[in-house]
Amino acid sequence: MTAFFEGIQYLFVNILFAPLDFLRSLELVTWFGANTINWIFMIICSAAIVYWIKQLRIFDDAGTENQDTTAHSFLK
To answer: What is the DSSP string of 1-69?
Structure first.
């Protein structure tokens, strides 16, 4: 049973976390390069927010948005 858990440890530490170890060592060379994943996620989130706001504006202009304050039973 010990070999099974050591195999799991080897898989995660030496194989799956290798790219993150590379980014950690890259931080000493260039900060922007080490934070590439963060920049990519920020770009994806910004694009999603812009898309969401555009969709909200489309439904608001069409008049299909229910803005009645009694839309929920707990607001009565």
So the answer is: -HHHHHHHHHIIIIIITHHHHHHHHHTTT-HHHHTHHHHHHHHHHHHHHHHHHHHHHHHHHHT-----T
Is the pLDDT at 6 greater than 80, yes or no?
Answer: yes
How do residues 15-50 score in pLDDT, each as one tens digit? 999 988 888 888 889 988 889 889 999 999 999 999
Are 24 and 34 a contacting pair, CB within 8 Å?
A: yes
- Sorted by where each begins, the domain ranges of the chain are 1-61
CA distance to 32, 49, 67, 70, per residue, from 44 (Å) = 17, 9, 30, 35
Half-sphere exposure in the Cβ direction for 54 (13 Å, CA): 6
pTM for this prediction: 0.59
